[in-house]
Amino acid sequence: MFSLYLIAEIQLYSSSMGNFRLDVFYAVAKRLSFTKAASELHITQPAVTRHIHELEEQYHNKLFERYGNKICLTPAGDMLLKYAEKLSGIYRAIDFEMNTLANLKQGTLQLGASTTVSQYVIAPVLAGFRKKFPGIELNLLNGNTEQIEKALLKKEIQVGIIEGKSRNQEISYRPYLKDELVLICSKDHPLAKKKEIAAHDLRNTSFVLREQGSGTLQVIEHALKSLNLKLSDLTVEIRLGSTESIKDYLRHSSTMAFLSIHAVSKELQNGELRVVDVKDLSIARNFFFINLQGNSDGVVENFLRFTLAYHNLK
């Protein structure tokens, strides 16, 4: 009964005050904090409380439960949040499409990118996009692949670019850019001057690996199977959470690491680091665009078209 009632009410609830109340609810529901919502919306906390109370009266349902200093959504609040998220997407699409017709091209795009992409690939694309569409505000969240997928599922971002491809049925995966992982060491490493090493040599050296949840780590693990090796067969000296820290560690140790060719181009050019080929091992992969299944608005599609065109024209 609440679902049918809510749908009918939302269809009629199109006044500016009504929309703002939903904005208030959405901010509270996403932050689970009246204080943070008030700060984000630049209104007082009593005003936030009043708007939520008016919504609860309107829908004859309590939207939040209090547990000490914390709040959580009730079943009715959780349902309203789903509709509010759909409405938010619709409003963004309307704003973008109508502004595009007026040649304004305005809107906001919440992006997420995994570590390698955010540090070594996407920055010039974002700069080019902003130059062409100065009215679109860009916000970029970075993290490992697992963190970016979780942010997408929580609807904290609209689109992500990741280094691996998982199997989550709620997410749409589209190939973006090809990449290659190569075995890297410092110029002073004992194997640095060898053109090629054998698979068994990998068992006799120490490695720096990324943290669990890294898309790069997943790809390496899969590729090693072709050599009848597991990650557990490697001697792991340390795990580090960023490519930059791995490169710095390699410079000061006798370790090796598998890194994206995009991430080490400068160091290879200046001779600090070296690529060592492994016989019968090639680690190619795609970076992927991700968005929720059936949930892609005009701003997102415009960004994807621009990004693909950017690389095709280079």
What secondary-structure arrangement, pairings included, does this model have?
Layout: H1 2-12, H2 16-31, H3 34-41, H4 45-59, E1 64-67, E2 70-73, H5 75-101, E3 107-114, H6 115-120, H7 123-132, E4 136-143, H8 145-153, E5 159-162, E6 171-186, E7 196-197, E8 206-210, H9 215-224, E9 235-240, H10 243-251, E10 255-260, H11 265-270, E11 273-275, E12 277-278, E13 283-292, H12 298-313
Parallel strand pairs: 3-4, 3-5, 7-12, 8-9, 8-10
Antiparallel strand pairs: 1-2, 5-13, 6-10, 6-11, 6-13
Helix pairs in contact: 1-5, 2-3, 2-4, 2-5, 3-4, 7-12
Provide an overview of this structure.
- The radius of gyration is 24 Å and the shape is elongated.
- It is α/β, with parallel strands linked by helices and 314 residues long.
- It has helices at residues 2-12, 16-31, 34-41, 45-59, 75-101, 115-120, 123-132, 145-153, 215-224, 243-251, 265-270, 298-313, and strands at residues 64-67, 70-73, 107-114, 136-143, 159-162, 171-186, 196-197, 206-210, 235-240, 255-260, 273-275, 277-278, 283-292.
- It contains twelve helices and 13 strands.
- Residues 1-17 have low confidence and may be disordered.
- The protein folds into three domains: 2-86, Winged helix-like DNA-binding domain superfamily/Winged helix DNA-binding domain (Arc Repressor Mutant, subunit A, Orthogonal Bundle); 99-177 and 287-313, 3-Layer(aba) Sandwich (D-Maltodextrin-Binding Protein, domain 2), CATH 3.40.190.10; 179-286, D-Maltodextrin-Binding Protein, domain 2.
- The protein is 46% helix and 25% strand.
